[in-house]
From TrEMBL:
Domain PPM-type phosphatase: 1-59
Protein name: PPM-type phosphatase domain-containing protein
Gene3D superfamilies: PPM-type phosphatase domain
Alphabetized InterPro entries for the sequence: PP2C, PPM-type-like_dom_sf, PPM-type_phosphatase-like_dom
MF terms (GO), sorted A to Z: protein serine/threonine phosphatase activity
Length: 68
């Protein structure tokens, strides 16, 4: 199994949304902005009382450079 995407979010999201629920919600979403908005909206629906921030990205789009 390989990593498909990365979700970076504040505790306001993670206190309300289980890890697997977040993955299931956005796994098929192609646009990271849309996926992040869906996660934030879902946390709000679950009555998260903390601040909620979320960003995401597709792992194939992330590249690492070994040059310094």
């Amino acid at each position: 199994m390989t990593d498909e995407f990365l979700i970076l979010a504040s505790d306001g999201l993670w206190k309300a949304v289980e890890n697997q629920a977040a993955v299931d919600l956005v796994r098929e979403v192609k646009d990271p902005k849309v996926a992040a908005k869906q996660l934030v909206d879902y946390a709000i629906q679950l009555n998260s009382k903390d601040d909620i921030s979320c960003v995401g990205g597709s792992i194939p789009l992330i590249s690492w450079s070994t040059e310094f």
